[in-house]
Design brief:
The protein has 112 residues and is mostly helical. The chain is 45% helix and 0% strand.
């Protein structure tokens, strides 16, 4: 059974912080890659929004607050994947990694 993206209880705050991304990637506090990490994070959030059909960080988010932790973990995993593999590899580029797909499957908005 998929989620229907119920309207969130309050406006969304930033889904993951730069510090959380750096901790996930086991990076130090140096800021030489902060801009790049910001780009990866924004792209990952958008990719998860596209995959689920839910707005996560918008003025009027449609992802329920209870689902934000799952979405945040998916974003961190996707950022990690892109950070470690900066170019296209032999993987199928039309699919997200399995761990991310598994996390976001219950969050998908099904339109009838």
């Amino acid at each position: 059974m998929g989620a229907t993206c119920p309207v969130a209880d309050a406006p969304a705050a930033e889904l993951v912080t730069l510090d959380e991304v750096k901790t996930h990637l086991r990076l130090g506090s140096a800021d030489r890659e902060d801009a790049y990490l910001g780009i990866l994070t924004a792209a990952a959030v958008r990719a998860i929004e596209n995959a689920t059909g839910c707005d996560i960080v918008a003025a009027a988010p449609t992802m329920a607050e209870r689902d934000r932790a799952v979405a945040a973990q998916a974003v961190l995993l996707l950022v990690g994947q892109w950070y470690a593999n900066r170019e296209a590899t032999g993987q199928n580029l039309t699919e997200m990694p399995l761990a991310i797909t598994w996390l976001i499957a219950p969050l998908r908005k099904f339109v009838v």
